[in-house]
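DM from R.C. (forwarded with permission)

"hey, sorry to bug you on a friday — could you get me a structure for this? deadline for the figure draft is monday and I only need the backbone to look sensible"
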Amino acid sequence: MRRERRAGRAEPQHRAQRQGRSSRIDLTISPGRITALLGANGAGKSSLVLSIAGVLPATSGSIAMDGQSIVGLRPETIRAGGVAAVPEGHQVLNDLSVEDNLKVAGSHLARPQLKAALEVALGTFPELRDRLQARSGTLSGGQQQMVALAQAIIARPRYLLADELSFGLAPVVVARLVPVLQGLAAQGVGVLLIEQFTHIALKIAHAAYVMERGKICFAGEPQELIDRPEILHSAYLA
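My reply, with the result:
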C-alpha cells in the first residue's frame, strides 16, 4: 500500500492530516466518539492508522495528539502516551501465553497499575480468564481478536485505532466485540474504526469519513451515508 506525506494541526483532539502530491487528508478523532473511516482496499486507510501509531514513518508534515506533535516518536512511546492500535488480522504474539500477551501490552505500567489494568481487560473479556496459560496461537480468530482488544485496553488509551475489527470473524463474534468499542467511547476514549461491513460502522459511529484513492471524498454524519448510498458505492468502485 502506497504511503504518502502527512500533515496536521494542533487541536484539543487527535487530529491527523495526510498530504500527497495532489491530495490531503484531514481527519479528527474526538474523545468519547466513534469515528468511522471507510473505503475500498488500497485507499490508504491502514497506512494512515500505522502512521498515527508510529509504525510507518511520516516523511513530512505532522501528526498531533491533544496539541502535541507525535511525529518521529517510537511506536511504544506513542502507545504509552495514549494511542493504542489494533491492526488488521487479530495480531497477537502466537508463541506467548494469553497472560504474557496482556502483560507485554502493559509493560510501561507500574506493577499496581498493570494488575488493575489486567482486571479491567479480563472483566471486559471474561472468556479469556480460562485461557490465560494457553498459547495465543492456539486460540480461535475471535479469541485472538479479544486478546488484541484486551491489549489495547491494558494500554489505557485515550485514542483507540481499530483496523478491520470484524476481519475473518463470525457475525456472533463481531456482535460481541462492537459493544466493547461503544463502551470505551462512553468512557471518553476516542475511537477510530476501519470496518469492511459499512452497516456496522455507520450504526455505531458518531462521525464518518470515506477515503478514495488516498484522499477524503466525504466527511460528515453517518446518517448521510445511509441516506445517500451512492457515495459509498462510488468510493468502493473507484
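R.C.: lifesaver. The first strand starts at residue 6 and ends at 7.
me: no worries. DSSP finds nine helices and eleven strands in the chain.
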